[in-house]
Design goal:
By secondary structure, this protein is α/β, with parallel strands linked by helices. The chain has 3 domains: about 160 residues, no CATH class; about 160 residues, Rossmann fold, CATH 3.40.50; about 50 residues. The chain is built from 16 helices and 9 strands. Strands 2-1-4-5-7-3-9 form a 7-stranded mixed β-sheet. A two-stranded parallel sheet has the order 6-8. Helix 5 crosses helix 7, helix 5 crosses helix 8 and helix 14 runs parallel beside helix 16. It is globular, with a radius of gyration of 27 Å. It starts with 15 loop residues before the first helix and ends in a 6-residue tail after the last helix.
């Protein structure tokens, strides 16, 4: 087996050493080793969700950790074409030629000739590559490798790097910070902006701002403020359903890890796609050191500003820093501008360029949301549903969009209270 110069993602795949074993065993005429390795490759491809060897190769080239992923990240950060250096392009071409020969070899015929019987083929093994951000890129690269068209393969490689980046994050729409690094979210919580009933006035400026961001124009850091269950988090998560096809990615940074904001931004700078950085349920105590990096970002510090990142925060508090009577300046404080200092600490919310207030739902709004969600879910008309919904709200968390969603979900399950 050859050793890649640049596209070394396949080296870490479970099937790679088994294919190498088959190549050696075929040359040695070792029937037992060939049979065992052939079965091992089959299991590995199924486990990886690959329908065949070509897709397995494409998947590991585009999304594997290794030299290519690091190089693409560095090129994106420097705003350079990953294949512009002649030496890099030649190395990629050499690897693609070898990988194309690997997937085009008739391994099935060679193995069956040696063992003298038919074996399960390496095709149609799984549903296909991961159905997320870069599925199209994986299909294109696999098709090019299978055809032997290396120039088409290098074009597919370059397009994937330009639009999705490279490495494990390139396959996902959503990321989360786990305390040390960004990780892809395989199945992000689904949310539909069309399910946010009665929030048209709030959504209009919000979506206009996101549209401006995606178009490369100036966009404002946004604060969504309102009571719990009013739809703030759903509004942000609903951006994936609306804009993922246009390249938008959603990154959730827990408030507990806000002190690592700089590291998160550094990783996002290595990704080519625009990202919304979601800060959910913001609230701080006075003197909280996690405020400092967020203030720097919102103020446009040259050390932290990233043009492909839009900050959107949600909070139940209009003023994000908790204020107590005991926190107010002492008249005898040596700071002659103590009130200015105090208000500066409390003015974090003012650093968001766009603040959108979500209203508290009343009885009428709650029932309207229930009716719309029930219709969207395909539930039949039911004259007694309103009464059940009101009882559900009284027993639970009151009138809110979240309560309405929970009630309709329960109705869909077929459970009715008496």
């Amino acid at each position: 087996m050859f050793h890649p110069y640049l596209l070394d993602g396949p080296l870490a795949a479970a099937w790679w050493p088994s294919v190498a074993t088959i190549e050696t065993a075929l040359a040695d005429g070792d029937v037992a080793a060939v049979t065992s390795a052939h079965a091992s490759v089959t299991r590995s491809l199924v486990a990886a969700g690959s329908p065949d060897l070509a897709h397995a190769v494409a998947d590991t080239v585009l999304f594997g950790e290794g030299t290519w992923a690091r190089h693409v990240g560095s090129a994106v950060e420097r705003q350079r074409d990953p294949l512009a250096p002649a030496g890099v392009r030649e190395a990629a071409l050499a690897d693609l030629r070898a990988l194309s020969a690997l997937v085009r070899r008739d391994w099935q015929r060679d193995v069956e000739t040696l063992v003298g019987r038919a074996l399960p083929p390496w095709r149609d093994l799984a549903a296909g590559p991961h159905a997320e951000a870069a599925t199209v890129g994986a299909h294109r690269l696999a098709a090019a490798l299978s055809s032997g068209d290396v120039e088409r393969a290098v074009a597919a490689l370059a397009e994937a790097a330009r639009t999705a980046g490279a490495g494990p994050l390139a396959r996902h729409y959503a990321y989360a910070w786990d305390g040390t690094r960004l990780v892809g979210v395989h199945a992000p919580a689904s949310a539909r902006l069309d399910d946010l009933i009665g929030l048209e006035r709030q959504l209009e400026p919000f979506l206009a701002n996101v549209e401006a961001f995606l178009a490369g124009h100036s966009a404002l850091a946004t604060l969504l403020y309102g009571p719990r269950g009013s739809g703030k988090s759903t509004t942000v998560r609903g951006l994936l359903e609306r804009f993922a096809s246009r390249g938008l990615r959603l990154v959730e940074l827990p408030v507990a890890h806000l002190d690592q904001l700089g590291r998160v931004l550094a990783e996002l700078a290595r990704q080519p796609r625009p990202a919304v950085l979601m800060l959910d349920d913001l609230a701080f105590d006075d003197g909280d050191e996690r405020l400092r990096p967020l203030k720097s970002l919102l103020e446009g510090s040259l050390l932290t500003r990233r043009e492909r990142v839009l900050v959107i925060a949600t909070s139940n508090r209009r003023h994000l820093v908790r204020e107590r009577h005991g926190d107010r300046p002492d008249p005898l404080d040596a700071d002659v501008h103590a009130w200015d200092t105090h208000h500066d600490r409390l003015a974090l919310a003012d650093r968001f360029g766009l603040t959108i207030t979500f209203p508290t739902a009343d009885r009428r709004a709650f029932l309207a949301i229930v009716a719309a969600l029930a219709a969207s879910a395909g539930l039949p008309d039911d004259e007694t549903r309103e009464g059940r919904a009101l009882r559900f709200a009284a027993w639970g968390n009151g009138y809110s969009g979240r309560t309405a969603r929970q009630f309709v979900d329960r109705e869909r399950s077929g459970y009715h209270d008496r």
